[in-house]
Specification:
Blueprint lengths: L4 E8 L4 E9 L8 H13 L4 E6 L9 E2 L6 H14 L2 E2 L2 E3 L4 E2 L4 E2 L2 E5 L1 H6 L4 E4 L11 E4 L23 H9 L7 H23 L1 H17 L1
Parallel strand pairs: 2-3, 6-10
Antiparallel strand pairs: 1-2, 3-9, 4-8, 5-9, 7-8, 10-11
Helix pairs in contact: 1-2, 4-5
Length: about 230
Amino acid sequence: MTDQLIHCKISCLVKQRQIQVSFVFGWFTITSRMPLWTSLANNGQASTLPWLCLGDFNTVRRPVEKSDGNVVTPYMVNDIQECCRLTGLDDLTSTGFYYTWSNHTVWSKLDRAMVNPIWLQTCGNSSATFLPFGKHSDHSPILVKMGVDGEPVSRPFRFFNMWTMYGDFKTIVQDVWTADRQGSRQWAVVKNLKALKSPLKILNRKEFGHISERAKRASLDLEESQ
C-alpha cells in the first residue's frame, strides 16, 4: 500500500481461484504521480495472477480523452502509456459515461478499469460501467462485471485498408454481395456485411498475418538494442 495505491489479493473459496485488484488514486501533478507508475510497473512485471487495476489516475491516457481546457501533450501521457506497455494493462470494454470527470468546463476520462492479459484469458467477457456522477463526487463510479470462466472474449471486427490492395479482394466482396438475401434492401446490406467478416478474417490471416509477426519482432529487436 502507498499513498496512491492499494493492492489486494482476493480469494474465491468456491472456485479456488485468486485475483489481484489494485485501487488507484493518482496525485495531481506529473512528478507526484511518478511513484505510482513505478509501483504499478513493479507489480505488473512480478504478478502471475489475473489483475484488475481501477480508480482515479488523475491523467488521461490519450489526447482524445479530454475535451476543452489545455491541450494534452505527449509529455502528459507518456508515463501512463509506458506503464501500460510494461505491465500489459489495457482498458476493459466499457459502457456508460466516456468522460468520467468534469468541472462543467472541462471534461476528461481520468477514471478507468484496466486488466492484464492473464485476466482476459481467465475471466472472459468482463466489462466496466461508468455510472453518472453522484452527489458527493465529480467522478463517475466504476462498476466492474467479471466474466464467466471459459467464456470467450469477443473482439470487435476491424477493417484494414490494406485488404483492398489484394488482388482477390473485389472477388471476395462480390461473391458475398451477389448472394440471394431475403428481405428488404436494408436488411440485405446488414446480412452481407455480417457475411463478409469471416472471409475477410481468413484473408487477413493468410495474406497479411506475417505483418503482425514482423512488427512484433521489430519491437523486440528495438527493445534489445536500447
